[in-house]
């Protein structure tokens, strides 16, 4: 019988930039153990059905399927979230949006809106850090709203809720102290859409017109009507879109407009405040 270490050593994932890590995550999931177990018990021999299950995971990964979709979960902020092909996989760069939001407002009560919530990652991260905030996450895809609600229930966060809405379209009249969004912002002709994990993610959550800014334009044009005085709009965008997004924010009459860099040093979030 093969051991844990021999299986990991022979795992072939030639197209993955993190082959060993991918194999460890997949094997740990098959065994129902944390990744640390693989190192502690590296000589343990595995049953044939465990080997077969691991081989099946490797085949899916070699076909390009993201590890998060194979496992059905992904870590974001301090949370473990259920993910599915209906939504984007939460990424570390988006944590900048959460960090920025938390730094802008005090811990006192606030109304917060997350547009295009997907798995609920941003909304749930904010709700988990600020119990006094009332967080609403919206998405136009029913399956995404259902997924976000499952994550909310599992995390037992009562200060967050989700509903279906195409951006602001289905919302009841309200004023928000903070509006955040990680909207689609990739150009329709971007070659990266045919590479890596992105091939398996929903195009509707990625692509936004010829220059990638169609949805950001819609949000910025409408958001000031939904912001309370002194309220903030925060947007994630592409690394080369910061100038264009700041121009949109300023044209909409927002103040204190600026952009911030992500973990890789790329401009990733732009924001502005309603006077």
Please explain how this structure is put together.
Helix 7 links the parallel strand 3 (about 110-115) and strand 4. The protein is of the alpha/beta class. Helix content is about 35%, strand content about 20%. Helix 2 (about 20-30) runs antiparallel to helix 4 and helix 6 runs parallel beside helix 7. It has two domains: about 5-65, Helicase, Ruva Protein, domain 3 (Orthogonal Bundle); about 85-275, Vaccinia Virus protein VP39 (Rossmann fold), CATH 3.40.50.150. The protein has ten helices and nine strands. The termini are far apart.
Short description:
With 275 residues, the protein is an alpha/beta fold.
Might you state the CATH topology name of the largest domain? Rossmann fold
Q: Please, how many helices?
A: 10
Please bin the fraction of helical residues.
Answer: 25-40%
Kindly report how far apart the N and C termini lie.
68 Å
The total tally of domains equals 2
Strand order of the largest sheet: 5-4-3-6-7-9-8
Family: Belongs to the protein N5-glutamine methyltransferase family. PrmC subfamily.
Protein name: Release factor glutamine methyltransferase
GO molecular function: nucleic acid binding; peptide chain release factor N(5)-glutamine methyltransferase activity
Function: Methylates the class 1 translation termination release factors RF1/PrfA and RF2/PrfB on the glutamine residue of the universally conserved GGQ motif.
